[in-house]
Design a protein that fits this description.
- Helices cover 37% and strands 26% of the residues.
- It is α+β, with helices and mostly antiparallel strands.
- The strands form 4 sheets. A 5-stranded mixed β-sheet has the order 7-6-12-9-10, with helices on one face. Strands 2-1-5 form a 3-stranded antiparallel β-sheet, covered by helices on one side.
- Strand 6 and strand 7 form a beta hairpin.
- The longest helix has 57 residues.
- It is elongated, with a radius of gyration of 33 Å.
- The termini are far apart.
């Protein structure tokens, strides 16, 4: 009798253990999926953060941002909501102005997209009730510098961020073996006047002189 009871209890315990193992096994895939999903989400957030951080470090410049200064030869998209006749893609002329219906010539060079938007909104308010204006830089043609002389890739360099002389030289392929690094000339226009700056590249590399910020329109000559 005792042996029969013991055998019965053993069977019950074995069956109960089997059921528990089966339930745990069936729940694990879902648990793994949840953990994997959480890990994937965490990785995505980390990657997105890293991408934004890297963009900040490299100084990638987007012409549509409010930090950009509009210049001659840029191309602007002017959008006025519900006003198709006023929505235009316009070039910035050499004199720094753009032309729009109703407003004729508007000064754009020297302004940010946000500042130009505010100016257009104010002027269009005389003709349109509560105008909603958007200004986007379609082509950033004015944000450039020129490099000539003893570099491997002389010519025009499009700038996409704040650039210093050292970085500009790298963008131009570096010096040739005949370059005179001690007498680099930067020609710049300020307030309609030509300004000349002589720079010793070796002093910048040695830390004796601060690196020079390159401005749009600068011409850098390496003798």
């Amino acid at each position: 009798m005792k042996k029969s009871v013991i055998a019965f209890l053993s069977v019950v315990c074995f069956f109960s253990f089997f059921v528990c193992v089966k339930n745990v096994a069936s729940e694990n895939p879902a648990g793994k999926t949840q953990r994997s999903s959480a890990a994937d989400t965490s990785n995505k957030i980390t990657e997105d953060t890293s991408t934004k951080y890297n963009k900040k470090i490299t100084g990638d410049f987007i012409a549509g941002t409010d930090e950009y200064i509009i210049g001659p030869e840029d191309v602007l998209d002017i959008f006025v909501w519900k006003e198709e006749s006023l929505t235009k893609t316009v070039p910035v002329r050499i004199d720094g102005k753009i032309s729009l219906p109703l407003l004729d010539d508007i000064q754009a060079s020297g302004l940010t997209p946000l500042q130009l938007k505010e100016e257009l909104t104010k002027k269009l308010g005389r003709f349109v009730d509560n105008p909603t204006v958007t200004v986007t830089v379609k082509e950033a043609n004015s944000f450039r510098a020129f490099v000539s002389g003893e570099v491997k890739q002389p010519g025009m360099v499009h700038l996409r961020s704040d650039v210093t002389l050292v970085k500009l030289i790298v963008m131009a392929g570096g010096f040739t073996e005949w370059a005179n690094k001690r007498k680099i000339l930067i020609i710049r226009k300020e307030n309609g006047k030509e300004k000349r700056i002589t720079v010793n590249y070796n002093n910048i590399i040695d830390g004796d002189t601060q690196d020079i910020a390159i401005k749009p329109g600068d011409t850098v000559i390496i003798p």
